[in-house]
Amino acid sequence: MNDTTHDSADGRIRAVLADDERLMREQLRSRLMEVWPELDIVAEAKNGLEAVELCREHRPDLVFLDIRMPGLTGVDAARQIVQLPDDDSWLVPEIVFITAYDQYAVEAFEQGVADYVLKPAERDRLAITVARVKKRLAQRDEADGDDAPASTEPPAGQPMQQLLHKLSAQLNPGGAPKYLQWIQATVGQTIQMIPVEDVLFFISDEKYTRVQTASIEALIRKPIKELVDELDPQLFWQIHRSTLVNVKAIAGISRDFRGRQLVAIKGLTEKLEVSRSYTHLFKGM
Predict the structure, then answer these.
(1) The whole model's pTM is what?
(2) How many CB atoms lie within 10 A of CB 72?
(3) Distance in angstroms (rounded) separating the CA atoms of residues 253 and 281
């Protein structure tokens, strides 16, 4: 497919709904048509795996995911969906979680990383969600056209990974994630154990992931999509499908002549490109 964000034939926002209960899907679709008649619901999924495949096929702007689904939870499905876009022709879709339990309405929802809808979907609350989603989609377009100067301020946003880790902890109480502390990597002809906090960034090509510290460059075979779930999301932010950066290593943000955001790394001349899906992390910079 060659769809780009917002480019369905009539310019409407494209959405996928995922809930294992048919009546809940029908009710949500009906309510959405009331509060957002322009929305184009392109597909509906009965489980998390189907949601991922439908997103791969339809490349939506927006996904509604039931948090608890058989086989693959909405949180696990979201982890896979946010890794699907492979270039800037399709941005990471906005995520709205559907839940019957308000304990999942954690602080991160209110900070605008994602949103939630309580079952059954009430018109007034859904209207608030729709307004938030529309605002975030508009901000994406503004960010594309924003000619921001260089900045040395700390990152301003909050990545989706932090929210997904929080939700996973709530879904699995007592199963607090154990983040990687060491990276076993190849340096020349030797294997070295590198403390994770010493890593400035990870960047992948088709076969290997480069591990960069202030003093060494190493290679591992673990892809970025696995590292995202194994590293502390407070420390490592994904800024591109192929790149994770240590937040403490960020020296500043600038734009090149093509308008792309570039991350400067402390102690290095190399700069890392930020893809359009992640420009919100540095909003206002």
Answers:
(1) 0.75
(2) 19
(3) 11
